[in-house]
Amino acid sequence: MDSIQPDSTLSVFFRLCRMAASCVFLTVLFPASSAHAYRILFYHNSLDGTEGALLKCVDILRGAGHEVNVIDVKGRHYDPAGDNWGAPYDQVWDMRFVGRDPHTTFDGPSQPRILAG
Residue 114 is inside which H or E element, if any? Predict the structure, then answer.
């Protein structure tokens, strides 16, 4: 059985930098104004190994005046099809990270484990 190696520290650092840059870009792209702040439904996985980096996007959006409702899937395989994506939400952001192999799941910040098939 092949083992999956965890990402290097440098790789994780660059991934977090790209995520932070994306959050800043999106805040500039969708600035809140006194006329209209967005209501955003925001999905994330607190066990994805990013140590809460994606929640910085929530802080930036809220700081810009947007209302953000956060749903943490906590490492579960979560199908949001039953969630209400309509009113009152203007936008839905899915910031969950998953493994490349459909037979793995993340237990947390450590490396993924292989599921018995």
Answer: strand 113-114
Per-residue pLDDT of the chain (117 residues; tens, 9 = 90+): 455 555 566 676 767 767 777 766 666 666 655 557 899 999 988 887 788 888 899 999 999 999 999 999 888 888 888 898 889 999 999 888 765 555 555 544 444 444 444
At 15, phi and psi to the nearest 5?
-65, -45
Query: Domain boundaries in the chain?
Result: 9-76+87-114
Are 97 and 48 in contact by the 8 Å Cβ rule? The answer is yes
Q: What pTM did the predictor assign? A: 0.57
What DSSP line would sit under 2-35, residue for residue?
A: PPPPPPPHHHHHHHHHHHHHHHHHHHHHS---SS
| Amino acid at the residue 47 | L
**What is the Cα Rg of the chain in Å?**
16
The verdict on whether omega for the bond into residue 80 sits within 30 degrees of 0, i.e. cis, is no
